[in-house]
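Protocol step 4 of 6: structure prediction from sequence.
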Amino acid sequence: MKKNTSGYFFLKEGTVWYLLRDLLLLFGAVLILFPLYLVVCNSFKTLEEAGKDFFSLPPNPDFANFKALFTDTNYWIFLRNSVKISVISVAAILILVPSVSYSIARNFEKRYYKSIYYYLMLGLFIPSQVIMLPVTKMMTKLNLLGPDGLIILYAAFSLTQGVFLFVNYIRGLPLEIEESAQIDGCSVFQTYLRIVLPLVKPMISTLLIMDALWIWNDFMLPLLILNRSRSIWTLPLFQYNFKGEYSFNYPMAFTAYLMAMLPMLIIYCLGQKYIIKGLTAGSVKG
């Protein structure tokens, strides 16, 4: 009797697994893209059109919502605040995190540096919600409830994850390259600037994109630190208060969401490969 191996062959080739994988990926893509579809579609609708059919394509695409957003609100002020805080915070992070990580990585055998490393790593196990009240009280006493205080907090909070990724990555770099540079007359700073920083570009790109996305979209810290004055709000705070200010004008709200997410969406799409490459390298090396 001839043995039927068609079912065995079907399973052996992994067709069922590939089918399930593709279905899961399709479901995930729909789950992620559908809210984006709603935001884009309703941004081009009037309030009446959105009320009639919230899920349909705009029957007569109109840019009136964008015009009203740019002219009838203080959108440009909030955009300027977000850009200022994001750029300065990311610049401070890119200076602070690699330098601290390099010092720890090249002196990891010393108890002092190892203690600092493990102390910073404790932040990975502490939920951010737990420290919000103490942080707010501390910043109030220091009179830092403003953009300057928020920038300091972003730079401090970035140390935990940033140092973890950079230290593991730098310790995996060949030490002989730095020793050769020092033999040729380079100081420690020159070695760090000319040798180490070019070698850690994947991690720098990862840190730049991840923290830029986090700071631009962050809501909790600006709510606690910047909520005393409307003039220093960032875009997430503007969006949070948008609904009440415009009496449930959903098309206008979605227009504000779209314009706020568009810059970071473009940056993430352009730098996605660097995030994956940097995270993979940082988690393996060491």
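Step 5 (inspection) to follow. The chain has two domains: 6-52, 74-284.
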